[in-house]
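Title: Prediction job returns without error message
Component: structure pipeline
Severity: low
Priority: P3
Assignee: unassigned

Description:
Job completed but the reporter wants confirmation the result is attached to the right record. Sequence as submitted:
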Amino acid sequence: MESKGFSVGTLLKRGWSLTKRHLGMFILYIILGSIFVGFAALVSVVFKDLVTVWQVIIAIASVILAIVVHIGIFKISLKAVDGSPLGFQDLVSGFKVVVQWIITGIFYAVIVAFPLVISGLILAGLSYTGSAVAIGIGMALVYLSQIVAWILAVAFWVWPFVVIDKTSNPFKALKNSFSLTMGAKWDVYLMTVASGIVLCLGVLVIGVGVFVALPIVMMAQAGMYRALESQTKF
C-alpha cells in the first residue's frame, strides 16, 4: 500500500498565515453564502403572498446560489494555497460545476449512510424476534456500521477539491478522492478532528470567530489536498 502523510499542525499554521492575507475575501464569501441560505429558509415569510410554486422556485434558486458560493470558498482556498491571485470571478466559477457538485455530494452521502441504513434495518428485523441475544447482535452491528461509515467518510472526504481541481465527473471524482486518501487515512482523520475543534472554538468566540476559523480550516484542508496530490500516482 502506498504510504503518504502530512503534518496537521503545519497545515493549520499555514492556514492561519494565509487567512491573515486573504481574510476580507473569505468574509465576503461567508456573508454572501449565509444571506442566500437565510433567504431560502425565510422565503415563505418574505414572499408569503406568492403562490407556493413560486416560493419553492425562489427557495431552490437561493439554495443553488448558496452552493455556488460554497464552491467558491473551496476554489479560493486552493488558489490561496497555490499562491494565485484571488478575485470575485472565483465566486461565479462555481456555476460551471454546480450540478456535478450536487450529484457527487449525493453519492458521497449515500456511500457514507449505506452501512448505517443496512445495520438499522437489520436491527429492526432482529428486534421483532424479541430475543435479547438477537437484539444485542443487532446493536453490535449498529456500532460497527458507525465505524465503517467514519472510514468511508474519511476515504472520500476530499471529493470537493477533486471536483473543482481535476474532474467534474462524479464517479471519477469519488474514485480519485479514494486514491488520494489511500495510505493517509489516519492523517486525514486527524485533520477532520482538528477542523472540527477549530470551528467549534470559532463559534464559541461570540460566534464571529467562525469568520476566522473557517478560512483557517479551509486553507489547511486545501493544503492537505495538495500534499496528498503530490504523493499520489493516478
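Comment from assignee: result matches the submitted record. Residues 37 and 66 are 6 Å apart (CA to CA).
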